[in-house]
Design a protein that fits this description.
Elements: E1 23-31, E2 34-37, H1 38-49, H2 54-61, E3 67-70, H3 84-110, E4 119-124, H4 133-141, E5 148-153, H5 160-174, E6 178-184, H6 201-209, E7 213-221, E8 227-236, E9 244-249, E10 252-257, H7 261-266, H8 269-277, E11 289-292, H9 297-307, H10 311-324, H11 331-340, E12 348-355, E13 359-367
Parallel strand pairs: 4-5, 4-6, 11-12
Antiparallel strand pairs: 1-7, 1-8, 2-3, 6-7, 8-13, 9-10, 12-13
Helix pairs in contact: 1-2, 2-6, 3-4
């Protein structure tokens, strides 16, 4: 994660090695379950759960989220004591219709039949089953029995970008369309109250930030209109594995989230972004759109500070955080959907997301 030395020549590589075929995002679709109000959630559930703790209240109501979506409203159905098995059964029940809506909307937006899809990528870190969503939804959508399927699991908030990169490579190599679907049901993983009561501020943060969503993109070869995927990259901060974790427990999946995460990202985001842009002879000032994963308000602040972006550049990310919360892997696609209509033809855009590792994943796109 080091920057290019001063004076070094910029590599000339207009797109990753391959056939010369362009992979272009021509459709985006989203779907959401029921809407929850953040303040009502605190007043009617989490306040009692946290014993009226003032620090917890400040964190919960100050995380940049006003509303978000959930398949489980804890005021009506408290899953905090559920086993992991019970949560996975609920995941299967609720993820399928949500994913179907998002994937169908993306295909319709692209004007493409599901039968034409050559690769179907399903991304999730919040639930699993076998046969999985990939098989179930391929059948419901009407995909060919020869469609290739790929499931990307437990990578966390940055996983949409590896999914996008894999799909783009397939489109370039095979000349066939691909569909990427992210489905995240974080509301299934409310954790039990700590033994003996008291507060667990890491869990307060996790319970305050995350929402449920599905988002899908369709990529086709050489489309004249859309967002061309020029490249994707990844960078992992050394010795940072313990700063962000997603542990499978007997009571669902438990988030570990260190307060050091923004500082570690701050020390690496500029070099990682430069490494993405350099092969295309682009600088930060050339980028018109920024789809920054809003892991939390401080994360967006760090990206602004380190890349020298004005507030207007990150407004789409803050708007998604405010209205949807952090929807794990789906979030960067939600921001991208908001951005795409505002990009000029030929303008580059950068998508970036962060997650366990501590890993930064980035995508370079260009409006066609």
């Amino acid at each position: 994660m080091t920057a290019r030395p001063r004076g070094a020549a910029r590599p000339a590589n207009p797109r990753p090695a391959g056939t010369g075929t362009a992979a272009v995002i021509t459709g985006i679709g989203t779907a959401f379950p029921g809407l929850l109000d953040q303040r009502n959630l605190w007043d009617e559930y989490f306040d009692r759960r946290c014993g009226g703790d003032r620090v917890a209240r400040r964190i919960f109501l100050g995380c940049g989220v006003t509303t978000r979506h959930a398949v489980v409203d804890p005021r009506d159905e408290d899953v905090s004591g559920w086993s992991t098995g019970a949560r996975m059964r609920r995941y299967v029940r609720d993820a399928q219709p949500l994913g179907l809506r998002a994937a169908s909307a993306a295909l319709a937006d692209a004007g493409l039949s599901a039968a034409d899809v050559g690769l179907f990528v399903v991304v999730s870190c919040t639930g699993y089953s076998t046969p999985g969503l990939d098989i179930q939804l391929a059948r419901e959508l009407g995909m060919s029995e020869r469609v290739r399927r790929l499931v990307i699991g437990h990578m966390g908030c940055y996983a949409a970008i590896p999914g996008m990169g894999t799909a783009a490579d397939f489109v370039r190599a095979r000349g066939l369309p691909a569909l990427v679907l992210c489905v995240e049901l974080t509301s299934l993983h409310v954790q039990p109250v700590p033994e003996g009561g008291g507060r667990d501020l890491e869990q307060v943060v996790a319970h305050a930030l995350f929402g449920d969503a599905a988002a899908a993109i369709v990529l086709v070869p050489d489309a004249a209109d859309g967002l061309e995927v020029l490249d994707t990259t990844a960078a992992t901060a050394p010795a940072s594995e313990e700063l962000m974790t997603w542990e499978v427990t007997d009571h669902g999946f438990r988030m570990g989230l260190s307060s050091k995460v923004p500082d570690v990202l701050a020390s690496h985001v500029e070099a990682a972004t430069t490494a993405l842009l350099d092969p295309f002879a682009l600088g930060l000032a050339d980028v018109q759109g920024w789809a920054v994963h809003p892991g939390g308000p401080r994360i967006v602040d760090v990206v602004e500070e380190r890349l020298g972006l004005d507030r207007a550049r990150t407004d789409p990310s803050r708007q998604i955080l405010d209205s949807r919360g952090n929807c794990s892997s789906a979030t960067v696609l939600l921001v991208l959907e908001r951005l795409r209509g505002a990009l000029d033809v030929g303008a580059p855009a950068v998508g970036m997301a962060f997650g366990p590792g501590l890993t930064l994943c980035l995508a370079l796109l260009r409006r066609r």
